[in-house]
Amino acid sequence: MSTLDAAWKHTFGSKFHSAIMATSRVVLLTGASRGVGLAIAHFLLSRSHKLVVVARTEQPLRELEKQYKDQVAVLAGDLSDLSLGAAAVNLAQERWQRLDGLIINHGVLDPVKRLADCSTEEWRAAYDINFFSAVAMTKAALQPLRESHGRIIFTSSGAASNAYPTWGAYGSAKAAMNHLAMTIANEEKDIIAIAVRPGTVDTEMQRDIREKHSTAMDASDAKKFAELKSSGSLLKPEQPGHVMARLVLDAPKELSGKFVQWNGEELKAFQE
């Protein structure tokens, strides 16, 4: 029995625990085509939950649809299109007549430039994807999540509180996302909202840092990220992904509004 299962059983009793685990939830997941998002998708789908999956790349989403029959609804599109949020929520309600959770897991690192070298338009484009799309999707999901007493999990970053040179647009958008989680916690008493720092994960974004952005970054930062890969220190997507998947199902009210580390003490019950 996992630590989380043991905690549930101790707190609620075996009958209620079994009922929780047997209940199929409907979750909207962005960035579901790869990395942490794909790990979250497999975790939830393998436990008979239902997903609306959103990403720019359609083929991996169709593979999930094929693998998990009748559990997946696909919406492919660029999340800088702010109408995609309402479309995704409507898809969940049309398909399953409810929405129990929302995981905002998409984002881009660009522009990786010092502020002096960036245009305002580049920052605005980054915010459209990294922040305003999250606002749009969250706003669209509020009513069904109020009805289900649901949860919102935001994939944040250590860059939200640690300002790397050349990462200003990305880091500040993640800081804004953390504040969005606090705002929801204060305004929406029937919804739990949490921002999660997933750690440094072996994803395509990390590959871009090493191969595409290293010359733009400070040499010490580029070296740091290269050594994390060469030393085998990067996390597997499943490590934070499985914690986040459990959180969208059963995060407690006392975590609402917080910015938490995926392997922090406050999430011990959700770790494997």
Automatic annotation (TrEMBL):
Molecular function terms, GO-annotated: oxidoreductase activity, acting on NAD(P)H, oxygen as acceptor
Classification via PROSITE patterns: ADH_SHORT
SUPFAM superfamilies assigned: NAD(P)-binding Rossmann-fold domains (SSF51735)
Keyword terms of this UniProt record: NADP, Oxidoreductase
Transmembrane segments: none
Family: Belongs to the short-chain dehydrogenases/reductases (SDR) family.
Name of the molecule in the record: NAD(P)-binding protein
Species: Saxophila tyrrhenica
Lineage: Eukaryota, Fungi, Dikarya, Ascomycota, Pezizomycotina
